[in-house]
Amino acid sequence: MNCKVCQSSLPNLLLDPKAPENAKAWLHLESCPACAADLQALQSTVELLDTWQAPEPSPYFDQKLAVRIREAQQEPPAGWFERLVISLRLNTGRQFRPAMAAALALVLVVGGGTLADLSGFPSGPQHDQASATINDLQILDKNDQALQTMDQLLQDDTPNDDTTITPAS
Ligand SMILES: [Zn+2]
Known about the structure:
By secondary structure, the chain is mainly alpha-helical.
């Protein structure tokens, strides 16, 4: 019953019945009821598909979608950890590498001072913590001095700015 002689050419018979390369298949169909039945079934399937119409979206689909998009845009942005987890889940390619590099750089910046101190004073954990704290205080002091210097520079600049502005007005 199951004839495989012209199974692959049956769609071609429907799409382009008068093509010369289909002549052999048509000849076979005349003597093979199984293939003729297959062609008939395929034809009725195609005709059924022709009658099928895509359903129309519900009347307020566009408005509802716009509201959903606006709500999503107005939601508070995810925290950096949430975003990192999402990016780790979704991105396995190129986008993942800059994020990982940034995270590593952050770890180095935060932990760098403490690690340097640990290597400099291997006497004990309490000493290391104390020296790390002192180191942090020294850095803060240096930063404070730098800020004060900048403030002085800005204060020195402002009178000059005022003198240049006042003649104009
Ligand atoms: Zn056949």
